[in-house]
Amino acid sequence: MKYAEEAKKIVELVGGEGNINSLVHCATRLRFELKDDGKAKKEELNKLKYVLQIVVSGGQYQVVIGPAVNDYYNAILSVANFGGKSEEKEGSGKKVKLTDRIMKVISGAFSPLIPLLAGAGMVKALLTVFTQFGLMQSDAPTYLILSAAGNAAFYFLPVFLGITLAKQFGGNAYVGGGIGAALLDPNFTGLLAAEGGADFMGIGITPIDYSSTVFPIFIAVLVYSQLEKF
After folding, report:
1. CA spacing 20 to 30 A to 132: which of 18, 93, 170, 211?
2. What is the dihedral of CA 93, 95, 98, 101, to 10 degrees?
3. Rounded mean pLDDT of the chain?
4. Residues annotated as part of the active site
């Protein structure tokens, strides 16, 4: 297994398998949730040539690896057994501040989307360059198709966040995505043009364009995840 020895060393220096509650990763970091951060040997981890930095934030012990993080992540899962990649063990006794919990949710929601948003941003940036230098017209079919690829990630952000947030809150990821999709359904967005406002079961509502928004889907999925538990 590639990076098996490096993985064993990282696990050892974060306090061993018994000190790990869960592990996820983003584009560059291994994000550990440890039972006791004090058992991790930060100085020794920083000395490893394949570790770029150690960051303790949002209730997570983050080991910055770089582009090869996915290989290290898989290697750790193959050499260590600590209950799965994203399961949280109860009863660890570790107290987490409210601000850390909030940061953990925000980080966990956006981290999986970083490659998607970065790629979409690059497409939009290239299209801007092309039009500025006259290499492509903004009404050309090629431009419109590429623009759709770049805009989709941001326009449908509530759908993607619905999926990642549902996982964070312990709900069904597909239901979370469905809630995000409902906010963008043409039948719903069509209410924006309704004269005299709109109502839901007799209750007056103000239709809003939820495309590319963040906060509404956070609230919607949080409420959904709590309801699902009952």
Report:
1. 211
2. -60
3. 86
4. 26
